[in-house]
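pipeline/complex-builder :: batch 7 item 3
reading input block
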Amino acid sequence: MGNALDNHSFLDFAYQLYRTMKTNEISLVYEGEINQDITKTFTSLTERNLAKSEESNAVQRKVFNVMVECLQNISKHADSLSEDDQKERRGIVMVSKGEESYNIITGNVIKNSKVPGLRESLEQVNSLDKKGLSTLYKTQMREGKLSEKGGAGLGLIDIAKKTGSTLTYQFKEIDEELSFFILTSTIKRNK
Amino acid sequence: MEVINIQGTDDTPNVILDKDNGKFEISGRSLPEDVNMFYEPIMNWIDGYSEGPNGETEFHFKLEYFNTASSKIILDILLKFEEIVEDGHDVRIKWHYHEEEEDMLEAGEEYADIVEIPFDYEPYTD
């Protein structure tokens, strides 16, 4: 009996999820491992969907750009909930389309020890205008070294530069060791 | 010198480096998982080229998209060509961009700000 009820409420949940996704025009929701193959799959999926829409090339390209940077950030930097699967980088990804903009929302686990540094980078990026971001990008390209993971510390600057919007973010503390980092990037449509 | 001719994929660019025929081009998309691994043979080739470059080099970038890790490597490539300029050889960068892609034009202008090599911007349409 209990089982049947659970099944029923799960179907309800699935329908509610479907409705919510429809209302908010969410075209993609994912939770799981994020690696290069997943990145390629999502970006080409999004690219195909956008190509069918009437969105301008410039907006399509920006959405593609931002997705790549967000996903590669996770595949390079995400920490893990348990000690034993340090290799697997997981996260959530959501893409939604509103009247005026596309939102790309990503979330991943991060060690609390890394939070202040990341927060500082985000605040710096958000404090700069287009010209300031361009200068910072150039400096970082010149002086920064590619890390072992192939990161250049340029992703967030690039997202802010291309979207022209401030980055919305939050850190939700999970426990003494870990937090959940949520980042929303907004790409204005047909501005 | 050997010729490098790499066919592009979903996440790596087409690369042609052909000294004898004076063809130097990187085009398509660049978002490889491991940029260092992909670009290593290209960097080595350019190191070899810089020891005896052509009197004039026209290097074409016709990228539709590159990720930030690639942007750093592209700067490294340009810096190698800057040294070739400093050694007294002519180098021009032909920076192609889709006429609707202002971001790609700006990316070229940012590189031109950093390196001492003449840039020409070449818009193209679909």
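note: The domain at 4-124 of chain B is CATH 3.30.750 (Transcription Regulator spoIIAA).
queue -> next item
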